[in-house]
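Revision sheet: structure tokens.
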Amino acid sequence: MGNQGPYTCQYWRKESGQEIPSTESNKVYITVQAPPVAPTLSLHPPHPLYLPGERVTLRCSAPGSDRLQGYTFYGEQERLIHDEVPAPAGGAGLEIVAEMGKVGVYTCAYWIPRSGRHILSERSRPVSLSVQDPPEAPSLSLSPPHLVYLPGESVTLTCSPPRGTPVAAGFQFSRNGGWRITSRSSNAHALNITGPEDSRSYTCVYWIRPSGRKIQSPDSRPVSIKVTAPPQAPTLSLDPPHAMYLSGEWLNFSCSAPGAQEVTGYRFYKRRPEQSSVELPSPRGGPRLEILAAVGDEGPYTCQYWSRWSGRELPSGLSQPIIIRVTEPPPAPRLTLAPPHPVYGTGEQVTLRCLAPRGDGVVRYRFYRQRRGLIADGVPEPTGGARLELRTETGTAGLYVCVYWILRAGREVPSRESQPVSMSVTDPPAKPLVSLSPDYPAYVAGDKVEINCSAPPGASPVQYGFYQNRTPLGSPPGNASSWQTDLQANTRNTTRSFACTYMELIQGREVPSYASDPVSISVFPALAAPSLLLIPPHPLYVTGETVTAECVVPAKPYVPRAHWVLRDREARPEPPEPRFPLNVTHSDSGTYQCGYSTELHGRHLRSPPSETVPLSVTDPPPQPQLSVDPPSGVVSEGLPLLITCTAPGDTSERRCHFYKDGAEITSGDTGSEISTMEPGTSFMNSVLSILRASPSNTGQFSCGYEVNMSGRWIPSPRSQAVNVTVTAWSLPVPLVAGCGGAATALALLLLLICLCRKKTAATRRLSTSYWKSRELRRSQIARRSTDISGVNMCLQQMTEGGWPQAASQDWGLLPKLPAEGPRPGRAAGGAAPPKSQNKEDDADSGAEFEFPDIDPTYAQVTFSCSTFRQGQGLSDTCDL
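Predicted:
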């Protein structure tokens, strides 16, 4: 509207380089007026797009105006396609048939008369005509695609639009030519086949919604579904058939199809409570399935098979179910190795012990080595568990485990394997070398031998061991390589074998080496000690005696080569023979031993010394003195003869011997009797009493005595000889008989006094047998005294030492000598001895007598003289 007004024009011309304008033209006046309001254009039916062949009406409506004279329709690029007069009801319509060539944008306008001209209105808002070909028919497929189906199977009908088709907005499935079974947005429909009634032909369509309009495709080609009955169910079996299985145990299922039909495959199923079946992998090569039981594998198991029919492998019905119960195995036992070492040498004894955590109900144990290789059943032990004893070898190295079994649900259930224990076995170190020191060709019992062990070069011994006859001797402390032993042997020869080993540290353990080659020796019995004999055997020898010393060697098994003698453990010159004489002197006193030497396989051997034998040497006793009563040596026939032998006195035990013309006189020979009086302070007397001398008593008398020294009676030199002469006797017989009777009466009187009086100074008990023998002896003497011519009264006086000596010829009563003290058996002061002592003294006597009180200093006798010893009891009676 702002362009209204007058308009003029002019031009320019260029002259001499300068633009010269012309004069303005005449004026022209322009009047501008707004066109009529645009009409409204619409499509009927109103679709965002149209299919080819569909009829479409373009309807143009102008706003209310009475002056409207006509309508004009425009196509693409403002191309006029049609002029239309107004419709009776107002507006104008243009009907066209939709086709691809008419696709485009359409507008319309109308005109009215103004100022003599037709004024065209503004164009309507454009409308778009879209034309699209209809979608192609889909394809219908079955999954799984079978020619025949079984009741209970599910088949999926899939409706697939052609490739390149816009996304389908929905699908429809129909059965038997139009009977719709479902409409859905998914292109798949799952059909659960229940029986033969599902045998039909099926089609599908789909539709699209381009620009919001639903366009349906043509029907797909029909597909047919055929339903048949399934094959007969198979039989399922389980091996091993147990009521309970262990986790980790292998189970074998077997599925058997009935009849002789062609079976193309088998399948096994595991059904858990309230869950669908789980399909297990098909077995390879046959109707068997091996599974490893686990705790989650409990439940029923079934199987089925497939047979070919109508070109399809049809599954059979499910077999009867087999219910599997799975339990965890018992807890693992504890396996130990004894002795526990990091490494073992070959030949060692090893014990494996297996112990269950709870020993109740265990039925057996087993041991395994490396990948469950069974070794053996265990040997039950009293304290529980089981053991297996092995001897280590190179092949026994490895890992060992053990298992035990308990009863569960009537089945022996194995436990878990124990923690493995490792046994490392190594060859022992190289053998050492053994030697002996000293090295003898032969040995005897008692020899000390040092066994030396030398390890090979490069070895590192930490300890050595020594053996005798394969029996261990011991091990020295530290790494000492020697051992001392004492050889012993019986009475027979023996052979000893010595060997050694050493310990080397391998993996922290002392491993023994191979044993050395043995060194064998012969051990002979030790040389037995000889016996030293002194011949004659005496405890004491007298100077000048000849003694033979004999070294007695055992008979076997050695032959002596030489002998040797020790005196006071000092060697003497070796005697050439086993016997050697000695003319003993005081210098020969001492202890003696002997021995011998021999040869054994070139070895010089020396026996142990014999037991010590003492050789004691003493001088002979002094020579005694012989006296005769009467001193002249001349005695009348029939009278008594006293020969007294006097020796130096001491306390030793002695015995006296009398000799006539060199022959020994024994008591009783020719009416003689010998008595010995105990020694005094310096002498001892022995008296030879001849009651009645006769001419046969004429001769040369001598005496000697023996002294008991160390148990041997050693004789003294004989006294000097004394000559005795017996002459004829002339006294009358009545006188002799009277003297003899008087003497007998006196002896009986003295005996009666002795029996009736009690002792006051000492008590002496004598047996009745002793007194009877004395009385009998006196009676015999009395009877023999029938001739008085032989009477001789003697009175003996006791010395202070208690020994008798010849009294003087005074026939009267001599004064008494004082007693030397209380006598044994009676206390000082005259008290009687204790009763217990009396009983002890009378142990060997049949009757008890108490000796009368007698002064022992003097005794008056005739032919028989009874001598009493003060302090020692009654002595023997000597006949004078």
